[in-house]
Amino acid sequence: MSTREGVDAEATPTMVGTLCEGGGHPVAKTLAAPFVLTYRATRAYVQPCVGAYAGSLARAVSERLCCCFAGMWRYEDKKWCGNAAIGDDPEHRDCDWVRVEELSAGSDEKPMVLYQGTIEPRDCVQGALGNCWLVSALACLAEHPGAVKRIILQNEKTIRGKYQVRFYDGKEKRFVIVTVDDLIPCKKGTKKPIYMQPHENEFWPLIVEKAMAKFMGSYSALDGGHGTWATHALTGDHVFMLKKRQGATSRYWRRHNMKFIGKPGDGRKKDAVFHKEVEEDIVRDKLFNILEQYNKIDSLIAVARVGKNGESKDENNGLVEGHLFSVISVRWAGRSFGVGGRRMVKIRNPWSSYEWKGPWGDGTKEWDKHPSIAKELGYENKNDGIFWMEFDDFVEYFNQISVCDRTTKNDLMLHYDQDFPCTGPIKGCLGGCFCFWVGCRGPRTIYCGHESTEELREARACGCVKVGNT
Questions:
Q1: Do 344 and 390 meet the contact criterion of CB atoms below 8 Å apart?
Q2: Which of 9-13, 21-25, 203-207, 324-328 has the lowest mean pLDDT?
Q3: Is 323 a catalytic residue?
Q4: Strands 174-181 and 183-186, how do they pair?
Q5: How far apart are CA 297 and CA 235, in angstroms?
Q6: What is the pLDDT of residues 291-341, one digit of tens each?
Q7: What pLDDT is recorded for position 8?
Q8: 135, 320 in Cβ contact below 8 A?
Q9: What is the mean pLDDT of the chain?
C-alpha cells in the first residue's frame, strides 16, 4: 500500500511477537508462559507508569526552558489542515483551530487531559456532524478501556501536541498509523469544538475523530457511514450485521456479512462496503441467544431502525429512526431455577439524550413492580441517554443489529485518572498488577481471551475468574 504523509503501515509481527501476544504452538506457549506473563505485566503497567512520571518531568523542564520557542517545537500538520481538513462543509469552513489545552471545557483547576477518570461510553459526545455511526462505535469500544488505549498510541497529553492513532484498512488488509496534531476546529470566535464534544476535561474522542477524518480525507467525509465498518476500522476484527427480513414479521432475521467494494488502490472510499445476505433464518429466540452470547465475550453491538425518512425523532417512543445506538448489556433477569424472568437489553444513545419512553424505560412503572429485577440490573433513573428495553420491544422497533466479534487478548493496559498526575500512575500500576497476578486477569486475557472469528460461536470456557476492570 502506498502511504500518504501522516498515514503509515504497521509492521508485521514476528514469531517472538506472536508468542508474547499469547499465540504460537501450545508447547512453546507453555514453556514461554512465565516469561511472557512477566513481560506483558511489565509492558502493560510498569513501563507506562515509569513513562508517565518521566513524561511529567520532561514536560515541566520543557515548559520552563522552551516556552519562548513554543511555536517551533509544537507539532502542526501543514499538509492536512484548514478547509482541506473540514471538507465539503461550507457552514464551518471559516472556523478557528484551537489547541486542546485552550478549549473552553478546560480550566486552570482542571486542565484538559487525554483521559479523565475511567474511560467510559459517556466520554463520546456527538457534535454538529452526522457521524453517530462512529460515535456509537467508540461508545461501544469505551466499555473496554484497554481496547481504546490500543487505538491511541500515546498514553497521555503530549508536549508537542502530536498524536498517533491506529486504524485497520480493511481494503488493504493491514493496520495503519495516522498522525495528527491537537488543533481542534471550533466555532468562530469561541473555543467550543464544532464536532465531537469533550466530556468534562478529557479529549481522547476528539483526537480519534480527527484521525478518522484524516484517514477518510476530511471531517465532512464522516457525515454518514456504517457502524460495522467503523468497528472494523477501530479493531481490525470480524464484523457482521443482523437484519430483519423484509416483508417478514420481527420473528425472522438474517445475517449479512460485510464485503468491500472494489480492489486495493482503486481510488474508492475506504468505507465503500456492502452487506451480503446469508440465506438462513434466525428466529427471535435464537437472536436473543446470539446477542447474549456475543455480549458475554465483550463483543461490540450496535442497533438501528432504518427507514425511508433518514434520521427522524419519534416523540411518542423517544427514539430516533435512522440513528445508531450502542448495546451495553444483554441480560435474562429475574430467572428462578432457569425459568421465568425478563429478557432485557441495555442501550445507549450517543447523543446522551432521547431515551425509550415505553415499558421499562427510565421512570416507568415496571421498575416499581419488579424491584428485584431493578436491583439485579443496577437500574438508575437518569437522563443520560442510557435505558433498558424488554427484548420483545427491542426486536419490534429495531431492524438492524451490527456485531463486531472483538479479539480480547490485548486488553491489558494501564488506566489512571490523569487529573492526579502525582498519584494516579502508581495507583493504576499497583491496581493493574494486582488484577493481573492475583485476580488471574493476565493469564485469562492472554491465554483464554477471545479470538475474533467469522463463524457464530460460543465463548470458550476458562478456569480463571474475572476480577476487576483494570
A1: yes
A2: 9-13
A3: yes
A4: unpaired
A5: 15
A6: 999 999 999 999 998 877 666 777 789 898 888 888 999 999 998 877 789
A7: 62
A8: no
A9: 87
Q: Which H helix or E strand runs over 50?
A: helix 47-65
CA distance to 116, 118, 233, 366, per residue, from 270 (Å)? 32, 31, 10, 45
Distance between CA atoms of residues 82 and 166, nearest Å: 23
**Under CATH, which architecture does the 238-404 domain have?**
Alpha-Beta Complex (3.90)
Half-sphere exposure of 179 (CA within 13 A, CB side): 17
Closest alpha carbon to 349 in 395, 392, 308, 305:
305
> Where along the chain do its domains lie?
15-72, 82-232, 238-404
Among 232, 323, 415, 450, the one annotated catalytic: 323
Q: Which three cell numbers stand for residue 131?
A: 457521524
Q: What percent of the chain is modeled with pLDDT above 90?
A: 56
pLDDT grade for 248, boundaries at 50, 70 and 90? low
454: which residues sit within 8 A by CB, 6+ positions away? 238, 240, 257, 405
Does the annotation mark 132 as catalytic?
yes
Mean local confidence (pLDDT), 370-391: 95
Residue range 163-187, pLDDT digits in tens:
999 999 999 999 999 999 999 999 9
For residues 153 and 345, what is the distance between their CA atoms, to the nearest angstrom?
Answer: 33
199 is catalytic: no
Name the helix (H) or strand (E) containing 177.
strand 174-181
Alpha-carbon dihedral angle through residues 79, 83, 87, 93, given to the nearest 10 degrees: 160
- At 225, which amino acid appears? G
Cell numbers for 412, please give them. 491489558
Active-site option among 199, 349, 404, 448? 349
Instruction: Return the DSSP state at 114.
Output: S
Active-site position among 132, 140, 186, 435: 132
| Torsions phi, psi for 227 (to 5 deg) | -65, -35
Cell of residue 61, nine digits: 523542564
